[in-house]
Amino acid sequence: MNQYTRMIVVLVAISLAAGALLAFSYEVTNPKIQEQAQQALEQAVMKVIPGAEKMTTVEKEGMTLYIGTDNQGNKKGIAFKTTGSGFSGPIEIMVGYNPKEGKLTGIEILSMSETPGLGARIKEPAFTDQFKGKSVKDDFIPKKDVKVITGATISPAAVSKAIKSSLATVTKIYPVGGDF
Amino acid sequence: MVKDFVNGLWGENPIFRAVIGICSALAVTTAGQNGIAMGLALTFVLTCSSILVSILKNIIPSKVRIPCYIIVIATFTTIVDLFMKAYFPALYQVMGIFIPLIVVNCIVLWRAEGFASKMSLIRSIADALGMGLGYAWAITLISIVREILGSGTLFGIHIMGANFTHWVIMLLPPGAFLVMGILVGIMNMITRKPVKNTHCH
C-alpha cells in the first residue's frame, strides 16, 4: 500500500469508528436529554402560573403557548417564552398571564448571562416578584412602573421590553377579559 | 511511570507551570463544583484520547496525524457533552459552552502530540491522568478562592458571615486573572531554588 492510500484508509477508518461511537452515545442519551428539557419546561410553567398542575401546549399565530390547568381541569393561566437582548447576551423569560384578570401571574428568568452581582440580580425574587399581578395594560417602563436594580440599567429594561412586546401579540390571541 | 504522573500534577502543571489551556480555566472557575466538574471532564477526554493515540501511533501516518488526533478528541468531547446534558442538566446549564471547547483545549493536543504519540501505553495513561488531575486541582483551587471571595460560599454552603461584602470582581473575568496570577506567584515562591552566588563577571 503506498502512503497516499494508507493515509486515506486510516482517516476513513478512524472517522467511521468515531461516527459509530457518537451515534451510539446519542441513541443512549437522547431520550434522557429530551425528558430533562421537558421537565425543565414544565417546572418553569408551573412556577409562573400559581395553582397549575398540568400543562397543554398550543401553537397559535407562530407562538407556542402553554396552558396551565389544575387537577380538576380548571384553566389557571397561560405561559409563554420570550427573549430580550440583555447586556451580554439574550435573556430567556417565561411569562405567566391570566387573560380573565388581564394580569401577569409571574415571571421566571430561564437563562441569561448578565454580570454577576449587577444585571444577574434580575433572577432574584426582589425583581421578578413585582411582575406578579401587574396589569398587562401597564407601560412596563423602568423607573416609571418597573422597579430597577442599582448599577444595572440595561438588564431590567431588556426584561420589561421583552415582556411588553410579546404581550402585544399574546393579548391579540387571548384578549383581556376573554376566555382561554 | 510515577514520574510521568507527578510531572503533570506539579512539575509541568498545565495551569500553573505550562500556563496552557487557561481559557476554560478562567471562564468556568466561579464556583468550586464547576472546577471539579470541568477538571474531571477534561481528565476523561485527555485519558481516553491519550490511550487511543498511543495505541494507534504506529498506524497513523505522520502526515495526517493532526486530523486523526482531532477526530479522536472531538469524539470523546462530544460523548462527555451528551452524557453531561442527559445526567447533570444543572451543571450543564452553567458550563454548557465550555464543554465542547475541550476539543480546542491545547492541553489535550499538547499531550497527544508531545507525549502519547511517542511513548508506551502505560506511560501515556500515567501522563494523561497526571496532567488531567493537575488541571483539575489547579482550577478547583482557583474556583474555591473565587467562590469564597465572590459569593461567600464554599461548594454552595455559606461560610462567611451575613455581613460579608461580596467581592463581585472575583466573579468577573478580571478576578480570574488576579487569582490565577497570585497563585502562580505563590507556586513559584514555593518551588524557587535558592540562587547560588556564582561570582560571574
UniProtKB/TrEMBL annotation, chain B:
This protein's GO cellular component annotations are: endomembrane system; plasma membrane
Q: What is its EC number?
A: 7.-.-.-
Membrane topology recorded in Swiss-Prot or TrEMBL: Multi-pass membrane protein
Does the record's keyword annotation contain Transmembrane helix?
A: yes
Subcellular location field? Cell membrane; Endomembrane system
Which keywords does this chain's UniProt record carry?
Answer: Cell membrane, Electron transport, Membrane, Translocase, Transmembrane, Transmembrane helix, Transport
Residues spanning the membrane: 36-56, 68-88, 94-112, 124-144, 164-186
Q: How does it assemble?
A: The complex is composed of six subunits: RnfA, RnfB, RnfC, RnfD, RnfE and RnfG.
Q: What does this protein do?
A: Part of a membrane-bound complex that couples electron transfer with translocation of ions across the membrane.
Query: Which family does the similarity line name?
Result: Belongs to the NqrDE/RnfAE family.
Spell out the protein name for this chain: Ion-translocating oxidoreductase complex subunit E
Name of the encoding gene = rnfE
